[in-house]
Specification:
It contains no helices and eleven strands. By secondary structure, it is mostly beta strands.
């Protein structure tokens, strides 16, 4: 059974930083695209960033996080990270990592392309 486990969430003040981790059981890990999404209360789940399993290219939600968030992967550790800097109150949400069922896919912002999801980790940014 595929598992994705997020960690690293917490509460920070505006301007602070957090690093989220996503440990995934998909194998071979390096061949799977991993995406980060977030969902604020009462809102839809939105794309944040993704890193490709085909060429490790990255994709960001430019409107909301480009220039502040960085996605990366450590394949020997089977982990993808989301470094979040210059956090804003509007970044407050539950953050989820996800993976498609197929390998060697491109990084995509389309929620319906992701089949496996973690349980989420809460990020709260206070002003």
């Amino acid at each position: 059974q595929v598992q994705l486990v997020e960690s690293g969430g917490g509460s920070v003040q505006a301007g602070g930083s957090l690093r989220l981790s996503c440990a995934a059981s998909v194998r071979p890990f390096s061949s799977y695209t991993i995406g980060w999404f977030r969902q604020a209360p009462g809102k839809e789940r939105d794309f944040v960033a993704a890193i490709s399993g085909s060429d490790s290219s990255t994709l960001y939600n430019a409107d909301s996080v480009k220039g502040r968030f960085t996605i990366s992967r450590d394949n020997p550790k089977n982990t993808v990270y989301l470094q979040m800097n210059s956090l804003k109150p509007e970044d407050t949400a539950v953050y989820y990592c996800a993976s498609p069922r197929r390998i060697w896919t491109i990084a995509t912002p389309r929620l319906e392309e992701y089949d496996y999801w973690g349980q989420g980790t809460q990020v709260t940014v206070s002003s």
